[in-house]
Amino acid sequence: MAKPLTDQDKRKQISVRGLAGVENVSDLKTNFNRHLHFTLVKDRNVATKRDYYFALANTVRDHLVGRWIRTQQHYYEKDPKVSRARTFGRDSECFGHLLVSQQVEEADDWLRYGNPWEKARPEYMRPVHFYGRVEHTAEGVEWVDTQMVLALPYDTPVPGYRNNIVNTMRLWSAKAPCDFNLKDCDSPAVLCCPQLAEAPMFYVLQFFEGKELRLKQEYFVVAATLQDIIRRFKASKFGSTEFVRLDLSTMPDKVAIQLNDTHPALAIPELMRLLVDTEKLSWEKAWDIVVRTCAYTNHTVLPEALERWPVDLFRNLLPRHLEIIYEINRRHLERIGKLYPGDFDRLRRMSLIEEGDIKKINMAHLCIVGSHAVNGVARIHSEIIKNTVFKDFYDIDPQKFQNKTNGITPRRWLVMCNPGLAEVIAERIGENYIRDLDQLKKLLDFVDDDAFIRDVAKIKQENKLKFAAHLEEHYKVKINPNSMFDLQVKRIHEYKRQLLNCLHIITLYNRIKKEPNKLWTPRTIMIGGKAAPGYHTAKMIIKLITSIGDIVNNDPVVGDRLKVIFLENYRVTLAEKVIPASDLSEQISTAGTEASGTGNMKFMLNGALTIGTMDGANVEMAEEAGEENMFIFGMRVEDVDALDKKGYDAVSYYNRLPELKQAIDQISGGFFSPAQPGLFKDLVNMLMHHDRFKVFADYEDYIKCQEKVSALYKNPKEWTKKVIRNIAGCGKFSSDRTISQYAREIWGIEPSLEKIAAPDDPR
């Protein structure tokens, strides 16, 4: 006999039903079976888990379609200004896995079985051109003798939270033109290439290697999206194919394009090309439209991460765009020359074209010049770009520069991935915090509430048990769920300092070996992330982590007191499992190098305490939660600057700190790689002689801070009180706040909380 439902169980069911918008469970079952039978042509005897997923996805999509259509009708009726961030193509991705403790990349054929959420829109297919040459005539400019591919749009519904709004994410797939319609091969509208007619476009794109492929992909997405934006702007009636709005000077009143880093920077010259060459506007009028439409978000201060494209590559692949960029630069430098007569060094620094053995186009400079707003993604990051990286540009256009601190959505990163915690919060302060995360401040009233403290700690332990079971099932690793789960999950990069984490692991290991009878706080240290395919140092860092784990995890003296796990193929689906289970979040980049971070916010919202430097959004997290409720260590930005001026001498730290010296000697001497004693000599050489990110300078303070972490973890009640204060301080880090600020302060749109009427079910 089934156990009767408690009030809490009923509440959870009601919450889930409300979220899904499903009023009738029997209808849901009927539609599920209908899709399994008619859409997938399967019955339960032969259906796989994937078939069940597709049937369910199609069932859910059915519930969205009416709202999706109604939303588009609503937008056409109201004609609001719309924002377009950069859009990615959909054909191929890559994932990394470990093979013999090393990262190996494989193609991720994620569309092999299709995608039940998307809808192809061949009626909006657009041509995209490459190569060719430019002809200047009395009538204007023509880009001729090009190679053409077709961009096929695929739309995916993006539902809002309990407001009946379903927005559209449009992705683009490249198609060979002759595959689309062979009869049109002689048509001037389609440039037919016999070699393209035989091959899927995926392979055509992949034929070009390295930088050319990357630039081709970036332009493909930009060109398709901009043509679509102009088509949509002109055809303002829902379902209309007639162009009813022809004055493009009003486009910035209806369209906002956010350049999310430099990857879509080609939107600036491409929009100029469309307005000047195709729409026949004057340069001045076109430039005014471009600047008022575009805005740029910077995501990094590392010089090597800012895109720079060889001029020769542009000349071959996008010759007309090179001409446009040169003209933008000429006018830009003319302005700088008038402001700073005779300052040729400033002209060199601010030019869009970098001179040298290989001339390159600085895409960040192009984004700044071609945008009306420039923002960083955390307050400290925005100050750095104003004061250092883009100081010359800030000096002439200070009004352009803003800050928009990143945020995360509480719907995914709390309600969905951590329903237990979401529920105990709702029991105390109600459910409205899901829409207004600032209401989490009300939890400060419960910091000393023993029942709430117990509930929060209980949810954390349940999540840890679940993740421990997941690790055992999928990684064949057994861990102690009563140990502290210490997490560092992010891209593998020198500036993120996974190496500093490694040095702490080795130090802790050596201490346990030295005093095996001491009462140590048990830790399971998990590091996850991917290295860029060509980033050798990052791959060696992964190898070091796994090699340390091989020694530590198999040492009987250490036992369950310390385990080291490298989380293979770290991705969102794994993050949704591990973040709710985490006790400690490692955010340990060198001060002044991390733009913002969002993983730090996700851990904070899910009840992990942070050990970190005053970098990126950590600074604002400390302000919101109280620095005393985080484990802050290490140099501040001004300390790093002072050390740069003085000169960073890693060897001096090595000679002064015995535990650091022992750890480095073990790495370089082959203790963690007995079969290949010299395996990590390059890493050690980098740390000792050319470490830009000053790992040794923060080592001593980091180790002391970790001792404080271990001491507090032995007092679960006080630990959980700090957890509650951190959760209560998360309100600022909602993406709702971030997007509202973008809307009001960059796009010139007032965010709307309006709900639209639910459509009648067509069935």
TrEMBL record:
Q: Which GO terms describe its cellular component?
A: cytoplasm
Which CDD domains does the record match to this protein? GT35_Glycogen_Phosphorylase
Q: What is the superkingdom listed in this entry's lineage?
A: Eukaryota
- What is this enzyme's class at the first EC digit? transferase
The Gene Ontology terms for molecular function here are: glycogen phosphorylase activity; pyridoxal phosphate binding
Q: Which cofactor does it need?
A: pyridoxal 5'-phosphate
List its EC numbers: 2.4.1.1
Identify residues that carry N6-(pyridoxal phosphate)lysine: 602
Matches recorded under InterPro entries: Glycg_phsphrylas, Glyco_trans_35, Pyridoxal_P_attach_site
Give the catalytic activity. [(1->4)-alpha-D-glucosyl](n) + phosphate = [(1->4)-alpha-D-glucosyl](n-1) + alpha-D-glucose 1-phosphate
| Gene3D superfamilies xrefs | Glycogen Phosphorylase B
One Pfam entry name: Phosphorylase
Q: Name one GO biological process term.
A: glycogen catabolic process
Task: Write the record's keywords in alphabetical order, separated by commas.
Answer: Acetylation, Allosteric enzyme, Carbohydrate metabolism, Glycogen metabolism, Glycosyltransferase, Phosphoprotein, Pyridoxal phosphate, Transferase
- Entry keyword Secreted: no
Query: What is the recorded function of this protein according to its Swiss-Prot or TrEMBL entry?
Result: Allosteric enzyme that catalyzes the rate-limiting step in glycogen catabolism, the phosphorolytic cleavage of glycogen to produce glucose-1-phosphate, and plays a central role in maintaining cellular and organismal glucose homeostasis.
Q: What does the similarity note say? A: Belongs to the glycogen phosphorylase family.
State the oligomer form and interacting partners. Answer: Homodimer. Homotetramer; to form the enzymatically active phosphorylase A.
Q: Spell out the protein name for this chain.
A: Alpha-1,4 glucan phosphorylase
